[in-house]
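Weekly modeling sync, notes
Attendees: AB, CL, MP (scribe)

Item 1: holo prediction request
CL wants a bound-state model with glutamine before deciding which constructs to order. AB pointed out that an apo prediction alone won't tell us much about the pocket. Agreed to run with the ligand included and paste results into these notes for async review.

Input as submitted:
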Amino acid sequence: MTIREMLVYGERRLQQADIPEAKVNAWYLFAHVTGMTKSSFFLRAEEEAEDGWLTEYGHMLNLRMTRRPLEYITNETEFMGLPFYVDENVLIPRQDTECLVEEALSYVQGKDVLDLCTGSGCIGISLAVLGGCRSVTLADLSEAALRVARENAHKNQADVLFVQGDLFENIEDTYDVIVANPPYIPTSEIERLMPEVRDYEPRPALDGEEDGLHFYHRIIGESSRYLRFGGRLCFETGYNQGKAVCSYMKKSGYTNVEIKKDLAGLDRIVTGCRMEE
Ligand code: GLN
């Protein structure tokens, strides 16, 4: 089988299994297995494919046909242009979340930053690498997620701290900026998500309980002990949760509370300042 035939074989198998974006998925698995770029593919398309490649590619195609997400098969993804390792212990970083990082980058320089519900560490590590922060602390309830975050800090040579605990449970310091992309999907909606998310991504990283707002309430309610005066709280929210989170922050004494939209024009970020007393 030639290299071109190998790629086309994968495209066909994923198309027959009705995998969304079958061609793109086949390309990513092909590129992962062979290490080829588009240009090396075009140069070498008519050469024979190596047997080892075919075995590994076949195995990965089988996994993708079960709707396992591509990123959990290749164990890699990109976020803010940086490489991240991912596995089933962490949510796959979303492009939407880059909006949160972009927003926070405008005020983290020289600051002490806490990333709650860090998961893969994508938010805090991007801020550490790109933001010139004084310190970045990554916190998560899950030990397994923190192991992934540690690997990602190492991969990106980010100098960050780690705390295991339930939100602020084991946090002792105070911070200038707290960022979080907490679980925010209402429990009843999880069953309606695409199988890649519903069956493979970690439930605790998705489930925001009854109305999806559980973690915003807890974080906002407890944040004043950990956020310095004049400090900022910055959340990613679900597309229909901006107003609710905004009004809860205002009720809790935050000022300059603002909703920011993502590239699709949907509410995505809510930020506010802790008032000087
Ligand atoms: N902070 C991580 C992310 O944005 C994980 C979020 C989560 O588990 N809810 O990808």
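Recorded for review: Strands lie at 77-79, 82-84, 112-116, 135-140, 161-164, 175-180, 227-236, 254-261, 267-274.
Action items: CL to compare against the apo run; MP to circulate these notes.
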